[in-house]
Amino acid sequence: MKLTKEEQEMLDGKHGRAVKKSMEILTALGDIFGAERLISVASVQIAGVSYHNLGEAGLDFLAEMAKDGKTRVLTTLNPAGMDMENWRALGIDPEFARQQERVIEAFKRMDVITTCTCTPYFVGNLPRFGDHIAWSESSAVCFANSVLGARTNREGGPSALASALTGRTPEYGLHLDANRQAKIAVDVKAELNGADDFGALGYAVGKKAGSKIPLIRGVNAASVDELKSLCASIATYGGTAMFHMEGVTPDKATPADETIEVTAEDIANAKRELNDETDIDFVSIGCPHASLTEIRRIAELLRGKRVTKETWIHTARPVKRTADAMGYTKAIEDAGAKFACDTCMAVAPLKGRFHGLATNSAKACYYGRGSNSFKVKLKPLEECIRIATEE
Ligand code: F3S
C-alpha cells in the first residue's frame, strides 16, 4: 500500500507507540483487502465497549493504547455493559461496574467522547453525504451508508480505534463507488407502519437477499425511527452493511440484475417467526437507541399508568438529558419504567434475569434469543407499552 510521508512516519513510530500500533493494524487490513492507500476519515464510532464482551485481554489492549494515544477525529463509543450513572438501580454487579468504569476511563484518556450509543447520529457524530468514516456498530454502519450516504466498512473495535488515533482508514469495500451498487432489487408489496414492521421487512429482505446490497422499491415513506429499525434488522438478518431505498436514500442506485418480492405474507411470516409462545417479564424499547420522538411517545403512553413488568428504555445519555428537561423522563419514571442509558439489553449481562422479552425491535429479538436465551415477542411500540402495564 502506498503511504504518504506522514503515514510512513506514523508507521515508523515517530508519532508514538499507539499510533505505530494503529498504523500496523490499518496497513495489515489494507493489505488483506487490497487497498491501494489510506484515506482520511471524518469521524469514528468504536464498538467493543462492554466489559462483558471485552474481558481482561481487551481492557489490557485499551490500557496499552491509552498510554500515549489521542484521537485525531471526532470519536464516540458504542453501548457499554451498563448505565454508567444508574447501574446500581438496574441491578448490575459492583465488580462488573468497576471493570466497565476502567474501560471507559481508558477511552477517556485517549480523548474519545465517552457517549456510549449505537445512534451516534443523534448526539453530534453526524457525517455528511460522501464523508469517509470508520464506524463499527452494524446498525449505525448501515444507517451511515444508506440513510446518510456517508461511507464506511463495518470496522472491528481495534481497527476503529486505530482510525481514531490516526485519522485514516484503508480505502476498500464500501469506500469505493463500485462496491456500493445494488445487486438485487426488492419490490415491497406490503403496507408498513412502525419500527416493528420495518424490522420485519429487514428480516424478510435479509433472509431472501443475504449480504447482497438491495435496492428496495415500493416503500413510499419511512421515518428516521423506521429506517433505524430497518438498518438494525437488515444488518442482523442479512449481513448487508447498506441498502438503497428508492425515493428515500440519497445514494444513486444503478439497476440490479435480479429482482425479488417481499409480500404482506412475507412480513406476516417474519412476525410469526419473531414471536415465541411465552409470558413476558421484561419489556425493552430502544434498539437501536431510542430517539426523542420515541421517548416522547412512550411518555404519552405511560402518563398516569403503572408498569407491572420490568420495563427499560435504552437511549444515549444526551438524548435522555433532553427528555429530562422536557418532563418525558418524569412521566416514564413515575410509571415505574426505567431508563438504561449508555447500554442495551444485548451487551448488558442480563442472562438468567428475565425469560420473556417484548420489544418493537427485530434486532433485539435476535440478541434477546442469542445472547440472553430469552423467548421474544416483536410488537408495535403501543402494544409493548400495553403489555408493560397490563395486570
Ligand atoms: Fe444498539 Fe444494542 Fe440494538 S447496540 S442496535 S441497542 S443490540
Fold and architecture overview:
There is one protein chain. The chain is of the alpha/beta class and 391 residues long. It folds into three domains: 173 residues, Aconitase, domain 3; 93 residues, Aconitase, Domain 2; 108 residues, Aconitase, domain 3, CATH 3.30.499.10. 42% of the residues lie in helices and 14% in strands. It contains 14 helices and 15 strands. Strands 13-12-11-14-15 form a five-stranded parallel beta sheet, sandwiched between helices. The longest helix is centred in the N-terminal third of the chain and has 17 residues. The radius of gyration is 21 Å and the shape is globular. The termini are far apart. The mean pLDDT is 96. It binds FE3-S4 cluster (F3S). The site of FE3-S4 cluster has 16 residues, from helix 13.
- Report the CATH topology name of the largest domain: Aconitase, domain 3
Please give the share of residues in helix: 40-55%
Mean pLDDT: 96
DSSP, total strands: 15
How does the helix and strand content classify structurally? alpha/beta
Largest sheet: 5 strands, parallel
Question: What spatial order of strands do you see in the largest sheet?
Answer: 13-12-11-14-15
Helix-strand string: HHEEHEHEEHHEEHEHEEHEHEHHEEHEH
> Helix count, per DSSP?
14
CATH homologous superfamily name of the largest domain? Aconitase, domain 3
Shape: globular
Q: What small-molecule ligands were found?
A: FE3-S4 cluster
The top level CATH class name of the largest domain: Alpha Beta
CA-to-CA gap between the ends? 63 Å
Number of domains: 3
Query: From the 3D coordinates, which CATH architecture of the largest domain would you assign?
Result: 2-Layer Sandwich
- Poorly predicted spans: none
